[in-house]
């Protein structure tokens, strides 16, 4: 091997090899590399001594500190449970009326409720509960199933058209698709429904007498003769300006021709009775606070 | 076609045989796999192999190439590889920016399944890592191994098999995602048949590298080859173990992994982090160890440092995969090992970065004037930055904040945009004039533009996501006085919007830079002035006989 030459810039010798013009200096490894190598390795070894670290067949070294992540979490959860126990008492025992009278409880309901709602309900109902097409506005306007807190609690608990055994059922039949009404009949009744919110039942009936007749025969059973809806079957009020799917002719046609069965999940199994109650109180409170 | 006529008659015959066998396999899947998406892939393989088989047939009886060829390195596969690298860069970075905008405005899809976020995201990751990065590695490795061994590739068929076969794998992967074919392992999404194909290609690659090394005319193996070898060898091992799976049937694209539960997670991240180590680090360090000293005209700062860094990285990386699974069902002792090895790993990582930067001593004026060398310098800086950040994030308590947040994505892109892509672009801009025997790139100004677009794009991207990630992490762990979480997950999503916009803009800058590179490549091949005889010898003595007259010792 040829002897290395001296690099004029750094003053170090090369290793004497060359590849396609590339040479290497024989510079010793800088001391700092060894320093950091020992420091990090020492830290690692000490950490291994203190913490769970090495496998021993079916078990492992537990470490001198006896730190166990699982137990740390279990303890933290137990601690939080204990801290919140008094508040859970309040939630479980008091009824909706006494919440409203208890500012401390209301404060907690607003805070915890906002969080629960944001994590579980906002994806469909919107972060401010103002709804989206097909997902009702819960913060304001009429609700199909009623808006007393107890009713809200029931809706949230069992859901609508969900697989909960007590689920509420909302069935808006597919009048066109299933051949219950002909195309001209559907056109007539949707014209009548379309004008209800603007003109009221009487005026709209004058403008669309055929539609009004069909409505009385086919729709009134659920939506009521006055078209103001029936909370026991979840049939919406068709005379107000709150629409779940939309109040333009095209959307009403879609609704009546193809039917609607909105799906609201049941939350009993997932959130538990206490949180369902809290959410009902939260939604009810939200509604009272809307302008 | 010159490229085909330059193969020997025997190589042409063998190429045709391989292509016909592939066409037959494709036909079988296409015909028998009716109803299954695998049939689409069968048809694709059939069409692509026939498209290559026809020109080979047309030139089957061309005369044998001149024996003059043995006096030169075999660079045709590297040239095609360089072009493919740029094509993949443009395609995959475009898809990357598209998915970035989807996170700002989720409705910007065509509405059909293929354009959903979940399918486009792996198209981007596979496209950049394997398409862009992999082709860059293969193209430069052929180039580097010949020069540093001072020997021509042992044959002309296997490099083509590796390059084309590898790209076929990438195409199967990317089209598969669009069709909904995936085994749902991050960075290892392709299904069993694509995986098997890659094994064949990769073993050929390994054998080719070994044969070249075995024939070398230099007494010693240059360090770049150590890194390339580690890349090829370990990626083979990772790929095989992580993809062990049983197909539902031989005519179905679906398979089931051998692993499940936490074992699966650990195998996946052992694979995943070593993909970072040996694909995204070792391979590109090999690239750096060749192109940086050549371009700077300086000797490597320390041979010894390069050796201890090599063994340090190789040994330490094997253990750190579990830092991707901190605070999960993975037993805590495994997390401990991942964390402590990650900390030690910082030392050899910085050793490599420092070795690169110290090599530039005496050449800093060139860094100032030459954007190509500056690409490589900045790459080394980002390599140091990313590995520091990585070791920091591997600490369990830091990871509790960073995990699941966009900080991880910021870290990845400091590595991917700042290190991997910058070193690749630097190496490509150095190789292109040498490969095509041009005086220089057609437009050095355009290289300069690319450099600044790439640097500003990376900076915008990484700063945006550092902020985003830390804000997310903090929002998810902030409690009110009453012990309720202060923010919902949706609150944190809403808070991300400005950062996602910034990220998408940063990505756009980076994409524009890559497109400038594509344009420059085209202009250089078509219009740049050919190198004069003297220039083609400097800085590289490019012909074999030429090198032989100037012995290395
Ligand atoms: C010392 C070197 C490095 C260490 C210790 C390290 C460590 C880490 C850690 C702790 C994470 C986050 C895991 C999580 O919380 O999910 C991560 C993610 C990642 N890093 Fe690094 N890193 C290093 C260097 C690099 C480099 C150079 C790249 C090159 C691009 C890179 C690419 C990635 C990728 C792609 C991920 C994302 C994995 C995913 O999809 O979740 N890392 N790394």
Can you describe this structure?
The complex is a heterodimer of chains A (291) and B (553). Chain A has 291 residues and is mainly α. Chain A contains 10 helices and 4 strands; from the N terminus they run E-E-H-E-E-H-H-H-H-H-H-H-H-H. In chain A, strands 1-2 form a two-stranded antiparallel ribbon. Chain A is elongated, with a radius of gyration of 35 Å. The model of chain A has no long low-confidence stretch (mean pLDDT 93). Mean pLDDT of chain B is 94; it is low at 535-553. Chain B has 553 residues and is an all-alpha fold. The radius of gyration of chain B is 24 Å and the shape is globular. Chain B has 2 domains: 1-64; 74-537, Cytochrome c oxidase-like, subunit I domain (Cytochrome C Oxidase, Chain A, Up-down Bundle), CATH 1.20.210. Classes of the chains: A mainly alpha (291), B mainly alpha (553). At the A-B interface, strand 1, strand 2, helix 1, helix 2 and helix 4 of A face helix 9, helix 10, helix 11 and helix 17 of B. Bound molecules: protoporphyrin IX containing FE.
